[in-house]
């Protein structure tokens, strides 16, 4: 009964925060409410027996998205109250959404309470995957295609962001926050290393470790530390791309190795080597995810002749 | 048993309502930044639906005590993709703001 009470409170708070974020008068309030919403989502994942997601959400949903939205707020300049909408502008969408919600509820509550065949299948094959944590096994062995494409999506988002992002808004940092972030940095590196290693047999892994490292690096970057961590640094570029290239190289190597034995299959690890391949991919994926997420949040355009900011400066100099 | 299924239904209903709230914010929200936040609320609702479906297999009458790892892996990938898409959208938004601020009332050619 007490658990049900907790669930009701949690769901009520989630809905209230989401609604308040959508309806609030000021944009800054919407963003702050959304960050609180992200924190509660992490709690919800923990409640729903998904510790992997709780770890990732705590770093991504509450940390990185918050930093992203605040940067966007800072770029908007002075904050005005949102324009008030007439009741017609509010009522018709509300009616539409209510009808949709009704249909959605009807559908969702009809879903069968029995699980599908996949969990049992994963448990059955887990011994051959090279790791003992099922989520890591799915991510990097059974469905590694997803992870490969995800690294590609991250890289594409980074390239796109580097193309269009305007110059960052520089603000002076606070002495106390600078020294605190320096204290936190070694702790975050140790924790991320632990998460990466623990991912083989308990909740953790490349995504969580990468997100945590990125959150720490963003805090340091906002305090004007880690000046080498920028796209102009050749090593940063190398490691941002290395996640994808090491993955593809591992896939090709495994393909060639298994090709000599039997029918070669794309993205299938030889069982005796799976553990080492997964560890290698995870290390590089962690670094790539950390660097990419950091650069996405504190995006600054590289000063190449092709970048938009440089072209504008040249135009200003000419005119 | 009764408690388990009522919790499950509660979370399912919350997930559906979160999607609805997000859609409403996406349609109504006057500023683009608020629309991006509303899109993130929609994605939170969808992820929650998937995690609740994964949680079914951890129930008292299920085979294993672990939640469905396939859905967890999908949501984990989704979280990272969602934050990178949000970052790209916000960069586009910043560019848009800068472009409109540079030329306030210039008539088109």
Automatic annotation (TrEMBL), chain A:
It is found in: Cell membrane. The chain crosses the membrane at residues 30-46, 53-74, 94-113, 148-170, 182-200, 206-222, 234-256, 276-298. This is Multisubunit sodium/proton antiporter, MrpB subunit. It is a multi-pass membrane protein. Residues 13-76 form the MrpA C-terminal/MbhD domain. Belongs to the CPA3 antiporters (TC 2.A.63) subunit B family. It comes from the Bacteria. Signal peptide: none annotated. Keywords: Cell membrane, Membrane, Transmembrane, Transmembrane helix. Residues 178-294 form the Na+/H+ antiporter MnhB subunit-related protein domain. The keyword Plastid does not apply. One of its GO terms (cellular component) is plasma membrane. Pfam families: MbhD, MnhB. It comes from Arsukibacterium tuosuense. The lineage of its organism: Bacteria, Pseudomonadati, Pseudomonadota, Gammaproteobacteria, Chromatiales.
TrEMBL record, chain B:
Pfam families: Oxidored_q2. The chain crosses the membrane at residues 6-29, 36-58, 70-93. Its main location: membrane. Keywords: Cell membrane, Membrane, Transmembrane, Transmembrane helix. InterPro entries: CPA3_antiporter_subunitC, NUOK/Mnh_C1-like. It is a multi-pass membrane protein. Signal peptide: none annotated. One of its GO terms (cellular component) is plasma membrane. The keyword S-adenosyl-L-methionine does not apply. Belongs to the CPA3 antiporters (TC 2.A.63) subunit C family. This is Multisubunit sodium/proton antiporter, MrpC subunit. The lineage of its organism: Bacteria, Pseudomonadati, Pseudomonadota, Gammaproteobacteria, Chromatiales.
